Amino acid sequence: MKRSRRHQKGHVFRKGSSWYLRYYDYAVQPNQQTVLQKKCVKLAPYGGEFRSKKAVRTLADEFLKPFNDGTFTPKSAMTMRDFVEDVYLPHVDRQMKPSTANGYKKMWSRYFKERAGISLRDFRTVDCERFLTEIAFKYDLRIRTLSHVKHLLSGIFRYAIRTGYLNGMNPVRDACLPKGKPSADTYAYSCEEVTEMIDILPEPARTLVAIAAFTGLRAGELRGLELADYDSSVLHVRRSAWRKHIDIPKGKRGKGAVPVIPRLRQILDAYIAAVKPTKYLFQNQKGTPADLGYIVLEVIIPILMENKMKWRGWHAFRRGLATNLHQIGVADIVIQAILRHSDVAVTRESYILRDGVDMRSLAAMEAFQKQMDNQRTTAANETESLVVIQ
User: Fold this and answer.
1) pLDDT in tens, 64-94
2) Per-residue b/e over 9-29, b at no fewer than 16 CB within 10 Å?
3) I need a surface site. Which of 10, 97, 285, 311 has the fewest CB within 10 A?
4) Which of 70, 103, 125 is the last residue of a domain?
5) Do 278 and 334 lie in a common domain?
6) d(Cα 297, Cα 315) in Å, to the nearest integer?
7) Per-residue pLDDT tens over the stretch 343-382
């Protein structure tokens, strides 16, 4: 038995019109213990080039190669479902933010769980593409969501390789995304829309919208704001609140100070004087962060609908701030600092919407026109001088 675990040749035999291989393989028990079990696999039909056991031996050696060269480990026999639920998701709970872990669990449960009976080592790139194609067809997903689904799947196998459950290449790496619906257009609130909302909304929705629009804070960061984070000139972003969890803000540059413009200072000062919050700027009767979802559904959306306006989500204020600053000529690197992105490319690609012509583009084209006019004037003067000389 010990010899078969290090190197096995298996037993090739013919039965009826086919050749078979009997060999030992690992099986993972419910208690995560691995045991060797005798298994049998069909190698080839009898006949043609496979009339002798010697000819079939090549197929057997090729089949057993991953067992003998260490590619297949005992743990790799674990099903994908067992690995994710017993190993990967507990790792996610320990290492990632609660909101991120919750999103991964929902995605796993909805898209993969029923398809995950395959063992880790048997999952190939072709299986990944089949998974993604089936998911795209069944749920009619947008290409952006499909990309997130593939990212989760790739992360599962990266972790399996890092922790020794699997050897070899990540089978998800070379898989191509199937065709999905185009990503939905994102939205950025204009200065006019923000002004109108601030004029018609009651507190605390009014101040929440003002902070979101004038600082670009995320919803969780709005909930996590404490009274001590405001000193009249800046808002210090120190934490983020998701459900009952309080954590640090998202990203490497998540923590930071955001300038408070005079208009926002006026709104904030009036709000604090009227409401007198004790800890969190926006808190419920229990003194914990307010439920923004409730405020949106019960206050903001009904009032916006009455005024023929649409609610586009808290992130539309963040995109709106980036887009509005860009249009008045603020450098992208400065916008990145205000939004606290780790990379300016994220600011440019996902937050600055360029549907219209911004002021910098207009100024550049006007300078180009001026240069063209100057060249034409110079050429005309030169022609006139030439005529006079002749």
Assistant:
1) 888 887 777 888 888 999 999 999 999 999 9
2) ebebeeeeeebbbebebbebe
3) 285
4) 70
5) yes
6) 16
7) 878 777 777 776 555 555 556 666 777 777 777 777 666 6
pLDDT: which is higher, 31 or 140? 140
Both tokens of residue 148? Answer: 């997130």
Do 239 and 340 lie in a common domain? Answer: yes
Whether residue 215 sits in one domain with residue 317: yes
Instruction: Report yes or no: 206 and 275 within 8 Å, Cβ to Cβ.
Output: no
Query: 43-47, 147-151, 299-303, 328-332 — which is least confidently predicted?
Result: 328-332
| 255 touches 249 (CB < 8 A) | yes
Lowest mean pLDDT among 48-52, 248-252, 314-318: 248-252
Domain range holding 376? Answer: 366-390
pLDDT tens-digit map of 118-131:
999 889 999 999 99
- 149 in the same domain as 35: no
H, E, C per residue of 11-72:
EEEEECCEEEEEEEEEEECCCCCEEEEEEEEEEEECECCECCHHHHHHHHHHHHHHHHCCCC
